[in-house]
Amino acid sequence: FMGLFWLIRRSPVLGAITLSVPVGGLLAVVHFKLLLNIELLRWYWFFACPVIVLWLALGAAAIWDDARKQWIAAVVVIVAFAVATWPIRRFHLTQPYENFRGALEFARGKDYRPWLDTGENHTKTVWIWRYAVMYDPRGENDAHTPKVLLAHVDESRREGMGFYLIDGYPLLTARILPEVQAMLDDPLLFEKAAVYWGQMPQQTMYIYKMRAAPKP
Predict the structure, then answer these.
(1) pLDDT tens digits for 62-88?
(2) Is the pTM of the predicted complex or chain greater than 0.85?
(3) Least buried of 38, 68, 103, 136, by fewest C-beta within 10 Å?
(4) Are 205 and 195 contacting, i.e. CB atoms less than 8 angstroms apart?
(5) Is the dihedral of CA 123, 152, 131, 181 positive or negative?
(6) Which residue, among 30, 190, 56, has the nearest Cα to 126 in the 3D structure?
(7) pLDDT class of 59 with cuts at 50, 70, 90
(8) How is the chain split into domains, by residue range?
(9) What's the start-to-end Cα distance of the chain, in Å?
(10) Cα separation of 16 and 121, whole Å?
(11) Residue 34 — φ and ψ, nearest 5°?
């Protein structure tokens, strides 16, 4: 914040203008969280980057006035930025944004690869909200009504297939498809077999496995 303090001391108006950008971002977080009841998407904060860079530059210039030592300021800023952002960069490098592959491997097996699909894998997969044909060329995404979902269940039981439903946006399903959600929560029809967490709640996937038909 050295750059911000330097700017406010030199020009209170410019300091207030630049400060309003991140303050507006914080207000947006509160608005989204408390009024809209959703999380503010992370990339919405990109608009604050130019202001932060300006503060860093001004702070570095204010600390090291001697031209011969300005390279030290640059190195300090670069190292500090790398250290401060390493946890989130490591998270992005090691964790999938939304785990399509993990969800599909859970349903069809660890050795399944879509480009080697011969049709021998006798498993039916249906997706709600999120469906990537590159991961699951034989998947379907038409289970937005109880009637259609029950038809999938009946077909799978009749054909002796395993059936997995992959819910790509559980919060949305619970809110606008309550009848479908009720079927997924029915212990006679499905069990929640796995959860694949995404980097944000809307990228989390619930995997529901069809239960065997009750014996007559």
Answers:
(1) 666 555 566 776 777 788 888 888 887
(2) no
(3) 68
(4) yes
(5) negative
(6) 190
(7) confident
(8) 2-94, 100-210
(9) 72
(10) 62
(11) -90, -35
